[in-house]
Amino acid sequence: MRIVLDAMGSDHYPVPDVAGAVLAAREWADEIILVGDRGKIEAELGKYPVQGLRLHVVHAPQIIEMTDKPAEAAEKKPDSSMHVGMRLVRDGEADAFVTAGNTGAVLAVAMLHTLKRIRGVKRPALTAVFRNPSGYTIMADFGANADCRPEWLVQFGVMAHLYARLALGISEPRVALLSNGEEEGKGNALVHEATPLMKQCRQFNYVGNVEPKEVLQGKTDVVIHDGFTGNIMGKTLEAMGSMMRQMIAEEIKAGPLTAMGGLLARPAFKRVGKRIDPFEIGGAPLLGVNGVVIIGHGRSNEIAIKNAIRQARQAVLGNVVESIQAGLGAGA
Asked: Distance of CA 195 to CAs 126, 141, 198, 202, 321, Å?
């Protein structure tokens, strides 16, 4: 398998990007193509024993920074590491593209300049994958489409269902609409209009409305919403997790008895921390474009980069793109 990594993607490129690529190459023996400033990448690779690893560098003279305006950068930096990397996928020279770079720019480069939308897909969906008590939940859309039409939500359900089944290994994914109540009459106009369309769709197992508490309890495997709602919900969950970790640490240190108890409970805290750590997921797919694209967080460390590459491997092995093409393109 050949996976392209945007080595200039993360906030601290290329340090965690290269380190993550080395970890991935060691674990899976895949070919990892590092795209970006050749000099900087090779200097970083020189810090590791990489003999026998299938690591290759492709030079890209331009970098799309986190501070760049996405559409403008996508247009004015045609030789960026994002463009070069996604062109390798488009031209069949690689199987997947992974980046921790500017999310808006990834969307613009993929949709407008390189991979383009799958035939029949109204709007690609940006997703987020997180752990629930019994497994994984995938959210769509996570911000690519702030305002949505009801039929788009149905397509998000089809695509996220396929990813959950083929890449995450969930045999019968449950698909739900995010709402302010479980009852069918709850929700805004978008939810009301999308509900009958979701019920009529035979391409996934629709289980009705869910509130955020049901999502966190693992009562659905796929939760569908517009990008504005999904992005706020996802960022709230991330902030809540950080706040809870901070509050627990402060209370443990508040006195000698709690400090002793915290010491005894440290292994459990570490296990819980690992379960909710987004770096253990690594990244999430951009669904609906003609190629596997995995987007990680800008502050990704080497573990997150490695796990984003793992997500790409699973999507390729599961033939996710081909399945979306067959499921949605056939009706175009």
From this structure: 21, 16, 5, 13, 26
Paired tokens of 55 = 């690591």
The H-assigned helical ranges of 167-290 are: 189-200, 212-216, 227-252, 256-276
Residue type, position 134, single letter: S
The span from the CA of 318 to the CA of 166, in Å, is: 5
pLDDT digits (tens, 9 = 90+) for 204-215: 999 999 999 999
Domains and CATH numbers, the chain: 1-121+288-332 (3.40.718.10), 127-280 (3.40.718.10)
What proportions of the chain, in percent to the nearest 5, are helix, strand and coil? Answer: 50, 20, 35
Helix (H) or strand (E) segment spanning residue 32: strand 31-36
- Classify residue 15 as left (phi > 0), alpha (psi -120 to 50) or beta: alpha
Residue 108 · residue 14 · CB < 8 Å: no
Mention every residue, 6+ apart, whose C-beta is less than 8 A from residue 112. Answer: 71, 74
To the nearest 10 degrees (0 to 180), the angle between helices 189-200 and 150-166 is: 50
Q: Which parts of the chain sit beneath pLDDT 50? A: 331-332
Q: What are phi and psi of 89, to 5 degrees?
A: -70, -45
β-partners of residue 292 are 96
Amino acid at 52: G
pLDDT tens-digit readout, 291-301: 999 999 999 99
HEC-encoded secondary structure of 65-97? CCCCCHHHHHHHCCCEHHHHHHHHHHCCCCCEE
